[in-house]
Amino acid sequence: MNIAVLPGDGIGPEIIEQAVRVLERLRAKGLQLEFAYADVGGTAYERHGHPLPAATLELASRADAVLFGSVGDPRFDTLERALRPEQAILGLRKNLGLFANLRPAILYPELAQASSLKAEVVSGLDILIVRELTGDIYFGQPRGRRSAPDGAFAGADEGFDTMRYSRPEIERIAHLAFQSARKRKAAGHAGRVTSVDKANVLETSQFWRDVVTEVHAGYADIELEHMYVDNAAMQLVRAPKKFDVVVTGNLFGDILSDEASMLTGSIGMLPSASLGEGGRGLYEPSHGSAPDIAGRGLANPLATILSAAMMLRYSLGQAQAAQDIEQAVRQVLRQGLRTADIAEPSASSVGTAQMGDAVVAALG
Ligand code: NAD
Fold this sequence. Notes:
Layout: E1 2-8, H1 12-28, E2 34-37, H2 42-48, H3 54-62, E3 65-70, H4 87-96, E4 100-106, H5 119-122, E5 126-132, E6 144-147, E7 157-160, H6 167-186, E8 192-197, H7 203-216, E9 223-228, H8 229-238, E10 245-248, H9 250-263, E11 271-275, E12 281-285, H10 302-314, H11 319-334, H12 352-362
Parallel strand pairs: 1-2, 1-3, 3-12, 5-10, 8-9, 8-10
Antiparallel strand pairs: 4-5, 4-11, 6-7, 11-12
Helix pairs in contact: 1-10, 1-12, 6-7, 8-9, 10-11, 11-12
Bound molecules: nicotinamide-adenine-dinucleotide.
């Protein structure tokens, strides 16, 4: 299994180093993994004049999966948009056809105090948000500014966008959500998909709901419920543990996935996956390059280590190895190890490498 490793900028190289050490431990125990590195982001711009050099894209396209650190460096914020580090992510998504974003929101009971919600509401939370990534009102045409053609303000300047989803776009994300729920059910979850829309108001949403219901016919072992997005936003903070897998479009998913991630209180713990056809995927922590702590050995590597676990589960078919990593992370948290971002105020904390050491040791 060939993994393209793109460390990127800021804390990217530090956290990727720890995730690769964890994967190397699994390799030593028999998993066949090969790593190939390439530059991305500001680092790539500095060395090759572009945030996503052709060689990096080529390596990522050939790999079975991409393990990505983070990009972004304030030194490059004044470059023209196409050359800024963050463009590398958009380029990879587009070229690799990554149409689904998977973001688990997991709150380990040991970290319940880090959430802004009451511990009993969130302790033990383990849900998965599946967001469609390439369609919806973010990309729909036509869009722009014009003179309003009709209505009470006809003739006034207006801005407009177009919300649209085609059947194949909905079908492929629905399949992915049901299959993810099936994988999670095998690991003890409820086996339920909540499809979030605004079908009481939007034609696009009613079509979304109809197609998701049709796709569900092939997944008798998985329960399907539909929920309006306003209610979903409320339920996520009222009783988030009632959810298992949530599937939704690009716009609603953008908002709900950020809401869900804050339930856990700590950005340093949140992995993510962006998936395309045939199991291809890019795996990265949900956070950015954290320039304020880069190079100081303070970053929490767990989001990246947990992203590597997602890679094993979703792209490499190694569910047991994924569980082993997740179990090892739970164990180090139980042992009381904390990087500064998840430590109680005034409690002692460990650095990036020590946290990596502990996860490697917990793998046995
Ligand atoms: P950020 O996520 O990098 O940092 C926000 C805060 O969280 C900072 O205080 C940082 O120190 C802390 N933090 C983040 N990750 C941490 C970790 N693993 N351990 C401990 N603390 C951590 O967001 P930002 O400051 O808004 O953005 C910084 C740069 O990252 C920008 O250039 C931005 O464009 C980029 N960015 C990149 C990605 C990506 O690569 N996918 C995502 C978001 C932001």
